[in-house]
Design goal:
heterodimer; A: Rossmann fold; six-stranded mixed beta sheet; four-stranded antiparallel beta sheet; about 35% helix; B: alpha+beta; 13 helices
């Protein structure tokens, strides 16, 4: 599903440039539940941005769903994102003046789905994350956990191949964090590839594979022994 | 193509961000309102000027004779100069290119009686062209015609105030009127923009007047309108040439300013038209300045709008909006707001001019108004400015990497 070979990325800072990713090789197959672990500055967010087509890499090859990502213009990236990828961000990134339902259906709007169909599909996904009754509420009327679940519904609504989650629990307390992780696990159990970025061991241990990143290189890549249904605290 | 979904998206964005929408709309409304008011007032000033000089045809030249004040070629001081009918024929034939209309004019003050009402008025013997020269307008009946001239008919056209003085509310047309002891038939009533004095004149055929008063060939004055194709300088030269020829014919010294007089509106016109040009430039600068201010305002607001929305645009891009989607959304929104608020400003401005217009007359502002094409032009200018002003930041926002936009606060 995602295949990365010798990926390099540098950011210019003033006259200097910081080498963030120093040759990453990573292969994620369909249906995997992977977490990228690392402290801040390890390059994990940069990796996710490149995988999510939100940013471009300098060197190396990146295949998404078998397609080599190269010479990507904005329009093509937008179409690929819309087709293959769903995003979940740490700060939720919901549009504040849109209701939960409208936020969820936004990707479908850009996909050109009719309004009626959009609302039906989005309502199904809100139901799936347990927020059907909150469909007409604005983001500021929802709790953090609810906002993140709306964001997950939005990530899922286009039936993407991969869900990319950047610190999805970073702004949540531990109980809400677990419920969000449970939701991601459910999604994974349905066959969706889930790619989580985190710096919390607890979160990473709930995924099936942990890739540890340090100073722009992968230091370890191992499967977890985590039970499929973890004990709730 | 009309896309209901896109419009729904835009209406939501406008109505859910009231402060932002109102701010940008207000700038445009205010600019168009000011533009309409200033332009309207400018036009009102111009109208006042036009009216001040509209008493007679703007291209008129008058020639009259008097007594000599300089001894010349055997003529002593104080000799009466008297034009004759052949002077009229001579001028008419020799200056046919320069002359638009020409009419002789003799006048005398007479007592006018209708039944028990009587008063004194000026009776003028003229040709039909004189109506045009005076800018007189017929209210009822008709003015003199060439049949009256040829038949030397005893008919008169009377001013509006003569009718009012002598006939009250009744119509004077077709009634008989005793003018200077002779009965005339009234053929028409006229109004004259030159004011009350000019509406107390009584006009009779020039030939009738010559026959009834002395049966002579004497002619006192000429009223001429010059060909409007002449430039102001040509018109002045034409007047001077006529004066020179008449002075030579009657042995009047060139230095004699009184024996033969000539008033040429062209010299006045030069000053008036310079003033009008000045006023026009002033109006243009004011209007243009207002528009520039509006353009700057809308540009600033667009930059603000785009920067305020950077994060939202980043989210939209992350979920699949193409750069084109972003640019069209912002532009469509800005065009919509500009058009609606521009229209609002226009209605407001025109309304204020209508309501306040009449009370401005004492400040030399007559009928302040603005033509629809001018306002629409101004609104379109603002819309285009809004598009250009919105396009650049929108384009930049569309090109910004979603990752950067998402981390914006």
């Amino acid at each position: 599903m995602i295949k990365i070979e010798k990926l390099h990325k540098s950011y210019p800072i003033g006259k200097e440039s910081i080498h963030v990713l120093k040759g990453i090789d990573l292969h994620i197959k369909e249906g995997e539940f992977v977490s990228i672990m690392g402290s801040s500055g390890s390059g994990k967010s940069t990796l996710l941005n490149i995988v999510g087509l939100l940013d471009i890499h300098d060197e190396g090859n990146y295949y998404l769903n078998g397609e080599l990502i190269k010479d990507l213009n904005e329009k093509k990236a937008a179409i690929l994102r819309n087709k293959f990828l769903g995003f979940v961000f740490q700060s939720f990134n919901l549009i504040s003046y849109k209701t939960a339902l409208e936020n969820v259906s936004l990707p479908l709007y850009y996909k050109g789905v009719s309004r009626k169909e959009r609302n039906e599909i989005s309502m199904d996904y809100l139901d799936k994350v347990g927020l059907k009754d909150w469909a007409s509420h604005l983001p500021n009327e929802l709790s953090g956990g609810q906002k993140q679940r709306v964001a997950i519904a939005r990530a899922l609504v286009t039936k993407p191949k991969v869900v990319l989650a950047d610190e999805p629990t970073g702004a949540l307390d531990s109980i809400t964090s677990n419920s969000v992780m449970d939701l991601l696990k459910d999604i994974n159990n349905e066959g969706m590839t889930v790619f989580v970025i985190t710096h919390e061991e607890e979160i990473a241990s709930q995924t099936k594979r942990i890739v540890r990143l340090k100073d722009g290189v992968i230091v370890s890549d191992e499967l977890t022994k985590a039970p499929k249904t973890p004990l709730h605290v | 193509m009309f896309d209901i979904d896109r419009w729904r998206e835009i209406f939501q964005s406008i109505s859910k961000n009231k402060l932002r929408s109102t701010l940008s709309g207000f700038t445009v409304t205010f600019a168009i309102l000011l533009f309409t008011l200033l332009f309207g007032i400018g036009n009102g000033l111009q109208n006042t000027f036009k009216k001040q000089f509209a008493g007679d045809a703007i291209n008129s030249i008058n020639i009259w004779s008097s007594f000599t004040t300089v001894a010349y070629k055997g003529n002593q001081i104080g000799k009466k100069i008297q034009f004759k009918n052949d002077d009229f024929t001579f001028i008419k034939e020799n200056f046919s290119k320069e002359i638009q209309t020409i009419s002789p004019r003799n006048q005398r003050v007479v007592e006018v009686v209708n039944k028990n009402k009587k008063d004194t008025y000026t009776l003028r013997g003229v040709y039909p062209e004189f109506q045009f020269q005076e800018s007189a307008e017929i209210i009822e009946g008709r003015f003199l015609n060439y049949r009256d001239i040829n038949e030397k008919s005893k008919v008169v056209a009377i001013g509006r105030l003569v009718e009012e003085d002598l006939f009250g509310q009744l119509s004077a047309v077709d009634k008989q009127l005793k003018v200077g002891g002779i009965m005339y038939k009234i053929i028409g009533v006229f109004s004259d923009p030159g004011g009350d004095n000019e509406e107390r004149f009584i006009y009779t055929p020039f030939t009738t007047m010559q026959r009834l008063y002395g049966n002579t060939e004497n002619l006192d004055e000429f009223g001429i309108t010059y060909n409007p194709d002449l430039s102001i300088n040509e018109a002045i030269a034409f007047g001077n040439k006529m004066l020179r020829i008449l002075k030579e014919k009657y042995d009047v010294s060139r230095e004699d300013q009184r024996a033969i007089g000539l008033y040429n509106n062209a010299s006045g016109n030069r000053e008036v038209s310079n003033m009008m040009i000045g006023l026009g430039i002033l109006i243009f600068i004011i209007g243009f300045g207002t528009l520039i201010a509006g353009v700057v305002g809308i540009s600033n607001i667009m930059v603000y709008v785009v920067s305020e929305r950077t994060k939202e645009l980043g989210i939209r891009k992350a979920v699949g909006a193409t750069p084109k989607d972003i640019v069209t959304m912002i532009l469509q929104e800005s065009i919509f707001i500009t058009a609606i608020s521009g229209y609002f400003g226009l209605i407001l401005g025109v309304g204020i001019l209508k309501v306040a217009g009449p009370s401005l007359e004492e400040y030399f502002i007559l009928n302040p108004s603005i033509s629809t094409p001018v306002v629409i032009g101004a609104t379109v200018t603002l819309i285009i400015a809004g598009v250009i002003a919105g396009y650049l930041p929108a384009k930049r926002a569309a090109r910004i990497k979603p990752v950067v936009a998402l981390s914006a606060d």
